[in-house]
Amino acid sequence: MQAVRNRYTTNIKDTKDDNIIFIILSAGVGNRMRSYGPKCLFKTSEETILDKQISIIKSNFSQNEIILVVGFEANKVIKKISDDIRVVENQLYQTTNSSESLRLAINNSVSDKIFFIHGDLIFNKEIFDSLDFSRSFVLVDSKNQIEDNEVGITIVNNKATFFSYGLDTKWCQMAYIRGKEFSILKSLYNKPGKDKLYTFEMLNMIIEKKGSLIAVEPENMNIKEIDSFKDLP
Predict the structure, then answer these.
(1) Is this structure's pTM higher than 0.70?
(2) In this structure, is the dihedral angle defined by the CA atoms of residues 32, 35, 38 and 39, taken in order, positive or negative?
(3) Is 21 helix (H, G, I), strand (E, B) or coil?
């Protein structure tokens, strides 16, 4: 019997590139868990969420640089990471959103190829299997791994067309941006007023400017957003 493929799995190839910068956005407070410290330092099994993310990235992309954006209780986070992780601090984390953290990371990068990840995600190493890094893409979930209250996505011909709440297929809060889409993103930051926005709103603006974001759902992906302690494995 032929195996059933994920709805948004495409015929893609592995084209890893040492020039890709991985950006982990971990500046936010996480209001429901604020009194317990930075969410990225919560432990899942024997390691923190952040350690797990970094370990998986390094196991797949050993030569690529990782930039970590911190904000809430930044010193606690910095003390827990190795020297090979570059740290950027969003000092205005209380009054800005994830778009500003992404801008700071981009401004501290020399690459025009970025893969950004929100800092409260737990995922497996297979999530990076066979991705095509020759085009900009976003990772999506149609199997209810991401909670219903998170940002969703509409998809036409395997391309993202709109990000919003209340949609069935969810965005996995990861995106790879390069080429035309990276140029559009940089140009958007040239105008003020983006610091209060979320990253999904910046992705919508890229699409509005005729950028193309392929929607990909890795076949063996396991992913979970940690929103409260009940979400920890």
Answers:
(1) yes
(2) negative
(3) strand
